[in-house]
Amino acid sequence: MDYIKQPIEIENRSMEIIAPHLQGLGLDEAATKVFSRIIHASGDVGYAPLIHIHPRAIAAAQKALQAGCDIYTDVEMVRTGINKRKLAQFGGSVYCQVAEPGIAEAAKAADITRSMAAMRAFGHRMDGQIIAIGNAPTALFEVLRLVGEENLCPACIIGIPVGFVGAADSKKALAEQQTIPYITVEGTKGGSPIAVAAVNAIMYLLDNSRS
Q1: What is the per-residue burial (b if ≥16 Cβ within 10 Å, else e) of 6-21?
Q2: How do 71-73 and 156-159 pair as beta strands?
Q3: Average pLDDT value over all residues in the chain
Q4: Is 183 in a helix, a strand, or coil?
Q5: Could you tell me the residue ranges of all domains in the chain?
């Protein structure tokens, strides 16, 4: 059986297959690349009409990265998937503390999820930084509460939790707020690989060398 074996050729061919599904969406070059990487990561062209990128989101995230921002995540799968060597080249690090000592106790005491407790514990450390949520709707709801009630001001929220309970509602709330630029996916679709794809896509827009 003859098949493509070189990673860059596989990726290029994938992008060629994805391209027709983005026609008519009115995307600029940067948004096209983010859409394409999200679809590539999911293997599902059905994502195309569901992805929503705030007009300032990519530029805001790029500016933050170039200033050496950190990225705060809800789960280890997101933290693990982000290209940390690339991020370090810009001067940033990735943080997730859902499994850190004290978070479970804090969650139990407040009768909330660990993901909520973790984001609450980060608090204003996330000001001016990028937040990437790929699993827990409750984490996204908590971030939005911090924005609305405690004046949290991250540079960009990449909020793409997955699932049937709370995910669609949390992403709808993200898209409806007027304060923070965001990237999200409408409905129940999403997940850690999708949030990771969005983050890495933005970094690759700044520096596409594979390191």
Answers
A1: eeeeeeeebbeebeeb
A2: unpaired
A3: 95
A4: strand
A5: 49-206
Angle at 151 between CA 157 and CA 197, to 5 degrees: 5
Mean pLDDT of 94-99: 96
In the annotation, is 40 catalytic?
A: yes
> How many Cβ atoms are within 10 Å of 99's Cβ, its own excluded?
11
pLDDT of residue 211: 58
> What is d(CA 162, CA 189) in angstroms, rounded to the nearest whole number?
5
Question: Quick one: pLDDT at residue 185?
Answer: 98
Which DSSP symbol is given to 77? H
Closest C-alpha to 208, from 30, 35, 28:
30
Query: Alpha-carbon Rg of the chain, whole angstroms?
Result: 17
- Which CATH number fits the domain 49-206, given the four candidates 3.30.70.3270, 3.40.50.10230, 3.40.50.12780, 3.30.43.10? 3.40.50.10230
Please report the pLDDT score of residue 9 as a whole number. Answer: 80
Catalytic hit among 40, 52, 54, 124: 40
pLDDT of residue 188: 97
